[in-house]
Amino acid sequence: MLCYNLGVSIFYYVFTLKPTPFIIVYSKIARIHTLIMSCGPVICSYLYCRFHYPPLNTTAFLFVAISIILFHLSVNTISEYRDCLKGVDDGNINGPQYRLVAWPSIKPIYILRLGLTSFSLAVFSGFIAVFTASILLLIPGLIGASIALFYSEWPIGYKYKAMGEVGVFLAYGPLLVCSCVFALTNQFCWRDILMSIPFGLLTMCVVLANNIRDLDFDRGKTRTLPSVIGLRMSYTLLFSAVHLSFAIVLFLICIDAITGMSSLSLLSYPIIFASIKTLNSPKFVDVFGAIQAVFCALLALGLL
Q1: pTM, full prediction
Q2: Partner of 275 at 20 to 30 A CA spacing, among 10, 35, 205, 245?
């Protein structure tokens, strides 16, 4: 069934979508450019473990990393399918080139099949990681798979119940980092969990900023966190999460959990001031995406 779904979807795109190539369409709908949000924490987790826990099980880590990336793609793709099906998106949505509604020649069912194929491959890669590491790795793996699948998929779809930010925080913070650390070292401690929080918070801020920007558009179509707690509380939560992330990094440096050179990551903090100029602008989300990406890049550099 996995091969059938993948084969039919690729055949449909390659032979029916002209002149737009299949890879371009899929990369837009799956938002390939957002993979930096998962790749950054994965790389930092490896460098963090190299600093604390040699020797490392790089084979298990590699399959965990592949699984994380595939889960990321499946969430983006399935979520886009559900948004289209529920009528959350239309031609007036921000970033229409990344939306299924911008490609009327595409049958939504094929996007779902590609998403489920990515999810299935992620699960398969995860099982290989469990086989090469420890059965205990199955615990964060199953939790992460559930968060990924039910983000927008039936019967939960917690994204549409103002819980998307919570799921993203857990997936890109504690679950991602602890899975990588455990795959590499077969252990983890409270320090590793603390290390994971800035990644989760900064990635959550990207989703929250997106929902703040689209608040008026989403009203009456779906429930998001800003529509529940209000715009003022949403801004408070957004900027508090960013400040808390950098405060945790400073604390980790003070207790020698990460190297002093990791303070390079603090150079990404001034980017937050650009968000003030982009309020109520489509670029508002890009600012928080830039903070997360630059933070991960500089932290990785400091951990080398």
Answers
A1: 0.88
A2: 35
